[in-house]
Amino acid sequence: MTDSPKLISRVHLVTATPWQQAVDCYFNPDDDVEIHDLRFGFPERWDAGDLFVVVTTDSHTPAIIVVEESETASNATRSDEHTYMGPFDFGLSIASIEARLATTLPAGTATLEQELGERLIQAINAEASDPTPWRELDERGCLAEVADWPGPDSWAPCACCGEHPYDAAEWELHALVDDLEQDFFGTGPLTVCASCHDRLHRPLAPGADDVMFGFRPLCPSCSATRTFQVIWGMPAGPPGPGTDIAGCVITSPFTPEYRCGECDYTWTEDDEAYQPLPSEHTVTGVRARIATAPPGVYRPFSRVTEPGRIIVGEYLPRQVSSSSAWGPGVVHELFGDDGRTYSIDPSTLRSDDPHTWMSQVGGGVSSPTRPQQPATPQSQSTESRMTNRAVTEHDLGAWVFKCNPDIYDLPAEIADGESFVDGWSVADNYRSQMITAGQRAILWMSGTRDGSAPRGIWGIGWTTGGSYETSGLGGGYWKDDDHAARVRHIVPTAIRILDEPDRLRAGDIAAVPDLSDLEVFTVPQGSNPSWISRSQLAALEPLLPPWPAPDDVPLTTVTLGPYGAAFGSPKNNALVEQAAMDAVTQYYETHWQAAVDDVHTFNMGWDLTVTTPAGEEWHVEVKGVSGSLPIVLLTANECRVAEHDDAWELAVVTHTLSDEPEVTIYEADQVLRNSQPQTVRADLRGQDGWSA
């Protein structure tokens, strides 16, 4: 930070959204940080030496992250900046800065007058040195909540850290103003300790739910942040969100402390509950703790790579030479279930199956394989034991597939013309193993903090088959590539996206007494899929448009158009077909420098004749789909040509209407081997029949 900044140029306010990604850009040490949607708003003109005050405008409290000095002017071919002040760890509140200035700053991108710009830099310098206590501003109105407060219940812990302050004066009330916080905790206010209350009032503060989960260990299996605390026995009072009640009956020596809300993995932090393993051989099904990096070896420490964190996966020791930064010897690495590779402390190697150790105290296990999760309570299902909501075929009303818009951009896919969801990723658990074709399905949007994608029901329909394995997804509308790559199970569906006026908001659903205890409310961070009971479905259906009939799915809506047969409506198909033709034409022209002739109107059994610079000719049939699954229809003529024409091939374009359509080429034998009859034409002319 510059101690006595002196201005020689102009000061500009630069906006940065979304604020979480802006924070990650400046503060997150991970190499794979997700900042693809980060956008900066710059003024139209600036000169070298001008200062950019970077402000988050969509955070709960607008805040300054950093002040940068431009090294180039706005007309330069590239923009370069260096840090002038900051970055400021928790942001500097705009309200605090305005209080110091005794004036209001512009709300968006702006170029300030010289005098105001100079005063702003001085105010930033003063606020960074001596931050204004949040209680002087109280922008949320928390202090007003205390007036009629009788005080905390004696049994209640802090809603965030879970600790029990011994001094009643440390208890405070935190007002909830964020929709996602209210969905998780209720309308509030929350009873919190003073320390957590200060955390919640930092200018760039996470939500109260994020602070609560920040005190929990990450999942050792998938590295998810939202892990549920397992409570055994009878709690002193009603447990808050983020907890699982395991009951009083312990039928196994293993009593898990945590359950992952994403993948359902259960574990305890107590290493003694797991059997030690030798460090000489490669083994799977291993649990270990991340090692501390040797002196001089850089590693960006984040929660994921924090030394001492437990991870599970495959142990992979390897020899290294003396030229290695780690020195000669063995590097002890573990390939985690989350797809990352970690350096681990070999003295912490243990089997990740606690029951092997519990049932054979003092016994040994050689080369353990990846076990199913512990027989108790997991074999009875975490949900059935811990929330008393076991799903059975008798009780099942509908599966609920949840969409996190921070991971998958469903709103963008809908904006591109998609009206059906043909598959959804799920966890590998007893629920997904229960899924079969013909079960009702609901698409639940988890919601965005800015309200652009409201929480609630966005689609209804059916499952069209059981879950199947995949080796990961990516591209298209995925916003979190790491999460997409970890997808291992998908359920095929036929879910119709509801028109916006027909979508049910979470608040309207929760207002119905019989629906206030839906699992998406009581366990909002539970794994995919969630579910609703038959009685809950009966209460829900009157709020929804008529449920699509089981046979009213996109795979039965076949349109014959100028490009052949396709699923869906004629209007949407025309858009998809033309976009697919354009994408494939560009693909061959760009990647093969080939000449492309459009012959689709001649009914030849292919759409494009492609000629390479070497004179080789390919006959390319083009198919496009709005979604991510390459499922297409072929006409009888196209199949006949594919059987006999050695030059025939199929180009399938997925995410056709998105900004980044993906072109995949398939050979004729691949297509024919994986084809099955969808519809059959019957010509009944000349046949005798009867009619009423």
UniProtKB/TrEMBL annotation:
Task: Output the SUPFAM superfamilies linked to this UniProt entry.
Answer: PUA domain-like
Write out the biased-composition intervals (Low complexity). Answer: 366-382
Q: Where is this region: Disordered?
A: 345-388
Q: What InterPro entries does the entry give?
A: NOV_C, PUA-like_sf
- Write out the transmembrane intervals: none
- A single Pfam family, by name? NOV_C
Domain Protein NO VEIN C-terminal per the UniProt entry, residue ranges = 576-664
Listed name of the protein:
DUF3883 domain-containing protein
Q: What species is given as this protein's source?
A: Gordonia hankookensis
